[in-house]
Amino acid sequence: MGFDYKSLATNPFQMPDGWKLTSIQEVAKVNEKAITPKNAPSHIRYIDIASVDKGKLLDIQELSFEEAPSRARRVVQDKDSLISTVRPNLEHYLFVKEPEPNTIASTGFAVVSAKSADPRFLYYYMTSKPFTAYLTQIAESHTSAYPAFNPDVIEQAELILPKDNEQRAIAHILGSLDDKIELNRRMNQTLEAMARAIFKHWFIDFEFPNENGEPYKSSGGEMIDSPLGPIPKGWSTSKFSDTISVNPSRGLKKGVCAKKVRMTDIEPWRSYVGSYTEGIYKSGPKFQNGDVLLARITPSLENGKTAFVSFLKDGEVAYGSTEFIVFAPRVIKSSAYIYCLVRSDSFRDYAIGSMNGSSGRQRVPNDCLDALEIALPAHNLINEFEKIAKTLFSKIDCKGKENVLLSELRDSLLPKLMSGEIRVPVSEKEVDQF
Fold first, then answer.
1. What's the rounded Cα separation, in Å, for the pair 175 and 178?
2. Kind of pairing, strands 61-64 and 56-57?
3. What burial letters (b/e) apply to 407-431, b meaning 16+ CB within 10 Å?
4. Is the separation of the CB atoms in 207 and 217 below 8 Å?
5. How far does CA 263 lie from the centroid of its chain?
6. What is the pLDDT of residues 36-93, one digit of tens each?
7. What does the pLDDT read at residue 391?
């Protein structure tokens, strides 16, 4: 059920022993610091609402102040909480640790700076489901296409506050889980970067190892002419859709309940599908493990929403948003090769350049891939790449599944710890440990 601080306010007997009811403005400041054109630095690191999602920093823009949007005004300090005041139900929030100098957030955030409460405890309180539901209710009470609330709503909100040592203990437990999740995400980012670096070195720079283990092109490997320019001897060219299956047929009938991947389930520049829903299949592209999902619509394509499907059971078929294109092996049998190909700069530039439709709703048409000529490496070379990349993507899969379990554990513990349903036994001697 979670907690409801409104019920605690009217029924003090529900209050855990040693806890007190106060308000956020008693222990924190909201939007304490701002920049103006007069005091602004020449360059900033800018966090927009779309740059964060459920505690994850997806992107940060490095801009000169002159080219930054007018909403780039909120100064971000160490241990601040960023809470989106627009559509709070979408849960765009972030806890900031040791930001680089001149980090600035959008005015679409309430920047909460703790003063006499544990900063991370306060963050978890404000991002709990009951509190988010409270903010959403207020935002939606105003008639608007973009439901929003004023930052003073957070200041005036009630806060159930444990003793200092228990605040720190709760924040330590939840923070440790989030820190492990973030570490896994960074490791996955590194593993994927390794796979893509090998792909570029072998298949774009043509520096794959020759029979002597030397880089092919720079060691004098023979090149032949092709419609794409010089390519290594033994390679050929082919149309993309003749080589890689586009939106392959999969066995999923209408009316069957199956896992569904929404566009919001794909993180920019991350290969692993970390979340999904379930629904009755009516329409949309179908896929299975080993397939690759590419966002076909702006701005998701430009923002790097591309995923490698590995979260399903063997033989299981899922479906996704109609704004995905699905790729699967055909002549090229390596799923890792296909993923790295569609993540390459040349493919992305081609796809983005092929988009059509009205402004803001442009899409990549499927038939544009019928005209795309790509290089077709020797099959033994693709097989060698698959062996290497499969190991890397298997590690990504393991860490991705671990993150799903860690997230579920955190989400299960958070309301119980915040309400006092689960108490953390902490003695006075343990205060300094957290």
1. 5
2. unpaired
3. beebeebbbebbbbeebbebeeeee
4. yes
5. 11
6. 999 999 999 999 998 999 999 988 999 999 999 999 999 999 999 999 999 999 999 9
7. 97
